What does this fold into?
Amino acid sequence: MSRLLAKAATLAAACAALSAHAGGPLNLCGNTPVKYNKTVVLNYDQGNMGGRTKAQADAIVNTAIATWNNVSTASVTLQRGSDMPVDVTLANYNTYVGNSFSTFQDGLSPVVYDSDGSIIDAFFGTGANTSVIGFAGSAYSTCSYLEGRAVINGRISISDATMTTALTHEIGHLIGLDHTQLDSDQALAGSNYPLMYPIAYRTLSTLHEDDIAAITALYPDTNVNATYGQISGVFTQVAGTAIQGANIWAVETTTGKVYSVVSDYLKQGTGFFKLLLPPGTYNLRAGAIRSGFTGGSSVGPFSELSTDPSFVSPLYVGGSRIATVTFGNLTPTPVIVTAGCIGTVNWKIDGTGTLSGNCNGRTLTASKAGTGFGSVTTITPTSLLSCGAVCSASFANGTLVTLKATPDSGSVFTGWSGACSGTTACVVTMNSAQSVTATFAATYSGTLATRYRLYSNATLEHLYTTNLYEYQYLTNQVTPSCCGWSPEGPIYKIFSTDASFGGVSAVPYMRLYNPFSFQHHWTTDLNEYNYLGAVGWQQEGPDGYILPGPVAGAVPLYRVYINVAGGLHLWTTDASEVAYLTSVAGWTNEGISGYVLPLP
Amino acid sequence: MGLSMRRALRRIATVALLVPGLALAASVLPLDLDGIIDRSGVAFEGRCIDTHSEIDPSSNQIVTLTTFEVKDALKGAPSNPYTIKQLGGEVGGVVNRIDGVPSFTVGEDYVVFLPGVSQLGFSSPVGLAQGSFSVKQQAEGRTVGNGRDFREMVPQAALPASAREKAAVAPGRLTRIDLNEFKQLVRQRAAR
It folds into this structure.
């Protein structure tokens, strides 16, 4: 029911022609999504937001609206207007917010700072202001939204990061987005669930690709066909009866990126769905909406009540969700998307169906091999391919593609294999699927090991380890329900032995443990190591070796700190994470701990 | 029907000609089960026997009134039947949708946790959807769940025996547990 369960415990973040992803549009007018046809101008409240000053409150709202404004493929624009003429309270709520027609046409879209939580309490029950963060939305008429409103609870005690996440999600609803259901079923880590997931597991500060496609689908900019292809069709039972309320998603086979929509989201009674997809090769899948996502937590237009189509046969059998259905079943039929392509997939719940249209390009798969590092990119067409360990891109039939391999410092390029050979530029004619491999050899000494990051809700600690067994054990992958840490995946590489890279010698990266606060700490500074040892930390010795200075091919490892729970440190190579934590969540940037090697 | 109600309906009927709807969405913090129990003044297992929307004369809002037949009081002393007033609903073609506020299906059973009634008479479940647990008859018996993972809401050691067994053999979400064991958990906490 709740449109968003904000994850407060995480300190790290704390129509006819249009498709809309996530569950689809929040509201329909007939079979047409309701949306704004004008700039959304928000009017901020006077007064404070509980313990936050007006300036601090304004900054949170600014961040939330900027997140949506920054989607380059969407045309929706939110902006700040003049402030409300008064400090909105329960006493004057109906005059400035309320639900009377006059408040929908007064030229104001209030963002109310409910400083003492009295508005929340009045409308949700006494004491609700200890758990309800706020609410937001828009009034609509003649298929367009007129004005919006948001009420934010200033009495509730949550971090700025959590408040920002919650408010961004709510503004997503305000501009017309419904929920999405992409989660562990699609192998996503909790931190990377879409922002429009009904429960706020997402801790990354950026939007998920499904959020971006969703807002683009509802408000497509003129450049949309340069970025996305379009797949539409119907999803039916074997006999051809439309299936309403199924979760339909496309997963890109190389990157694992996923995009979703609910079948018959425009309520046409046909099982129609439409997805905007960036270039790539996709498998199309379908499943059922989780039965917990009803009412306000609903995904799509058929899950308001437990008796709605999303929760009954054929999507639920004997009270249980059906197994995931794949277009093409055991040999999935690939849908190869190129920018601007239009394809149609009409398929059935038994996995059979047809693909037509021009989303049938040729896939080029490029891989990297060897002990070294480097990049593989396309020279022509430009910038369509930029590889991790493996990458792929789809090209129109007959396209001539030229690839370049560039070794990082500390590595050399030793040659192509597959569709190319030699060490010069690789030219491939895309008249069929092609694969090439670029091999890089390392010129460094020592042994590299992958570093994993995990998180404990109990101690609020992020732990880093190169011991895969420790990572799997603590995250319950060895013994279920063992330890409760959340896996956050591999993050970078460090040396497990004394080493050098690009002419720079690595130094020991010392680990300590505090038996009182249950926190671990890492440093290359022996003075810090010795000092902490003298004040009660347990010295655990070298936990690997990292580079003390910058080297081409290596990336900075940042250290940030927040004075919460006795003091918490976090180490990351993600500069955007540092920027978010320090600008929004109250962390302090303590600089660069050293340099490590990025994952391929 | 009183004068104020007739006036309110006329006002809404006028609005209906011009404004088909208002859609809002609420955000809430995640609460553990103890937090839900502690924040509630009344908790019970009950069957939804009526739900309808109307204009609320005290707040001039569209509200939904839901009535439960109380089967088993777990905390406080709920009257029987027990009616709650929540923001949102549909009257005369005017939709006032408040996403986040739980909805209930007539004929279905729930365990609901309710805060104190506000000065305007509102009382949505604690933590909104989190305070509304649906009761289902499954192969293993009657179970409850609110859509969230019980392992996020209840400490491992406090999980009922059958839930611990289920969790041990089926890693992943634990979204439903035995109704009677759940009620025992609630009563134990409420008695403190």
